[in-house]
Amino acid sequence: MEQSGAQPWSLPPGAIKGAQGAQGAQFEMQVREVTLRHEINDPDTETYKSTASTDRIVVGFVLFFPNYSTFLAKAGYYIEDLYVREPYRGHGYGTILLKTVAQQAVKRGAEKVEWCVLGWNESAIKFYKRLGALVMPEWIMCRLSGLALQKSCEHLAEQQPP
Q1: Helix then strand then coil, % of the chain, to nearest 5
Q2: Model confidence pLDDT, tens digit, residues 84-105
Q3: At 53, which CATH number?
């Protein structure tokens, strides 16, 4: 999502078709036009200018992908990242991003959208609860990375079930 000053913007139709073709017919690109009612003070405007147009500023993004729930035996979506830059928080951009994912999930017949949030991020937790999300403290995230990931695969070929 990008801030667009006082003028609405849109991508050229060829750009949308090109991106859809590259990703296959399974995914549909979402484009949202946003016109600000008032200017937002952004000291990093130059750093976050869009590569597509110098009058557009990147304000945030959401990265999500389809997944499958064995508990529900239904398809869902997982949000890997939802981020809105500090000057743009509290202006509705996070709501637009999250609701866009939810809209995509409903359109595709998914039964859920899930994501993780850091326990110390109280403002994000409150935001998600206001939107109707259920916080599930009984679920604990696990991760293999770095040396632990490498060691977890050692001697796999030699291992046999009992």
Answers
A1: 30, 20, 50
A2: 988 989 989 999 999 999 999 9
A3: 3.40.630.30
